[in-house]
Amino acid sequence: MMRSLWTAGSGMMAQQLNIDNIANNLANVNTTGYKKSRIDFQDLLYQTTRSAGTPVIQGAQVPTGIQIGHGVRPVSTQKIFTQGEFKPTDGPLDINIEGDGFFQVLMPDGSVAYTRDGAFKRDGEGRVVNSDGFPLAPELIIPDDATDISISTDGNISIRVKGNDIPQSIGQIELVKFVNAAGLKSVGRNLYKATAASGEAILGIPGLDGFGTLAHGYLEMSNVQVVEEMVSMIVAQRAYEVNSKAIQAADEMLQTANNLRR
Description:
This protein is of the alpha+beta class. A hairpin with a 5-residue loop joins β9 and β10. α1 (3-27) runs antiparallel to α2. The protein folds into two domains: 3-52 and 65-80 and 225-258, no CATH class; 86-220, no CATH class. Strands 10-9-13 form a three-stranded antiparallel β-sheet, with no helix packed on it. It has helices at residues 3-27, 226-258; strands spanning 37-43, 46-50, 55-57, 60-61, 66-69, 72-79, 86-88, 95-98, 103-106, 112-115, 121-122, 128-129, 136-137, 146-151, 156-161, 164-172, 175-177, 185-188, 191-193, 202-204, 213-216, 218-220.
């Protein structure tokens, strides 16, 4: 069997996965805080039939060898944490991170997840929660009689209550960052979990020690660029077609060989 069949087949499977990744990026083009993914590929094993440097006669060596590759494989899907565009919303608890950092969200099992989605709300107990009802950590509770909510660039939350025009501070929003944010595990719902590759979460205050600042009344949109994804889709589609042509060519060559007669 010709090795080109398997080699081209690996290329088709790789480009199918590439298209799947592009489709997911495009599907999340309007997802708040979404970060696009990129697939990295590697070539597979090589069959060496003659090594470079092999001596042929005394004082002479083969300058280049003969190596035949066996295709391609995907090795990683990497999140690209570039800044998305800002969308003004005037929401009372909509928060945008301008720069590095993640919000902390307390999960039902007691673990902590991380997100760039700053579309927070109040639940029935006055807690600040995300769209799934998971509370922001550290926990913040807004009193029922609060008439105005203000969030400063450094994360300080202050409110006004009925009968008192003097702002009162009720808490501080903290951010976390990671040595390798690309190593975070995506768990859906705009959430990430820490892994051994990402490193431990580094806690900090917005605007200090390299952390981003907060913008109240704004949301960070997806960093997906539609034109860029469409170009990548065209390239992947053409690569898929070229690999299919290689399979067709190999099949025709096998057919010719099978039809040989003495």
